[in-house]
Amino acid sequence: MTLYSYDGEGRRVKKVQGSATTVFVYNVLGQLVAEYSTQEPSGGTRYFMADPLGSTRAVTDPLGNIETRHDYLPFGEEISLVNVNYGNRLAVPGYTSSLLDGPRHKFSAKERDSESNLDYFGARYFSGAQGRFTSPDEFNGGPFEFTARAGVNPTFYADLTNPQSLNKYQYGSNNPLRYIDLDGHEPEESFLDQAVRSVGVLFDSFVSLFGSGQEDTTPNAEALMESWGAFSNSAPQLRPDGPPRCLQALLLNVET
Fold first, then answer.
1. What pLDDT was estimated at residue 255?
2. What would the pLDDT profile of 177-224 be if each residue is shown by its tens digit?
3. Cβ–Cβ contacts within 10 Å for residue 13, how many?
4. How does strand 32-37 pair with strand 20-26?
5. Which of 4-18, 169-183, 207-221, 231-245 has the lowest mean pLDDT?
6. Cα–Cα distance, 165 to 208 (Å, whole number)
7. How far is residue 225's CA from residue 76's CA, in Å, rounded to a whole number?
8. Local structure of 118: helix, strand or coil
9. CA 14, CA 88: separation in Å to the nearest integer?
10. Phi, psi at residue 202, to the nearest 5°?
């Protein structure tokens, strides 16, 4: 039997499984920053390799040797657990048919509980086998928050213009290859899709800047810089320390 404890914000703060107790610590922004367990860690330092959805695809040791590999069906069910030799995976080192092997953080970087095979998304749990959350997306805030949110959108997380959002159990608008869910409340574009869309906007702004024929191109230059900012925010792992020097010089020349 496994026991879970939650704080007033609904975050899981303790997990007791047999003789092992794990405590989860969050910062003021609600982000998980540390885990402390009575169970001794094994294996030393490991590095996770993720795909654009954030799902763990491989785990390596400090020397770069792959220890475990992980492939998923669209809604996160691990392929090697469904069919251990699907696609002749047993011929490739690293695949396993054991739920206990490998990292806890799997599909979209969420923690998968070995005792239930469910993914913990913060607000609720998700079942990859069913392709849906195990509980509806319900509002559980206080009276003041209820009044503020209900005034803007009586359905809270649902969007009346998006029929998929009316299904309170759906994950990623039933499009898990494009959307992710960071907290179990509502889907948003994956980091890769955000980056691709921002690159498109960046290119359009660049074309507008040089193809407008206007004497005063400051608005277009500023839009170009804003597009770069949007791209940087959507793909922080790809951005350098600042905008390219060509964009900085371009904006400087336009303003002067």
1. 42
2. 888 888 888 888 877 666 666 666 666 666 665 555 555 545 555 665
3. 15
4. antiparallel
5. 231-245
6. 36
7. 37
8. strand
9. 39
10. -60, -45
Q: Which two tokens stand for residue 44?
A: 């030393």
The reported pTM is 0.68
d(CA 176, CA 11): 24
Distance from C-alpha of 58 to C-alpha of 65, rounded to nearest angstrom: 10
Backbone angles phi and psi of 83, in degrees to 5: -145, 105
Region class of 50: left (phi > 0), else alpha (psi between -120 and 50), else beta: beta
Sign of the CA dihedral running 47, 50, 55, 58? negative
**Number of neighbouring beta carbons within 10 Å of residue 195:** 22
CA distance linking residue 72 with residue 105, whole number of Å: 13
CA distance 124 to 120: 6
Cα 88 from Cα 6, distance rounded (Å) = 42
Contacts of 198 (CB under 8 A, 6+ apart): 227, 230, 231, 234, 235
Report the first-to-last Cα separation within the chain, whole angstroms.
Answer: 69
- Rounded to the nearest 10°, the torsion over CA 135, 139, 141, 146 is -170
Inter-residue contact 56 to 105 (CB < 8 Å): yes
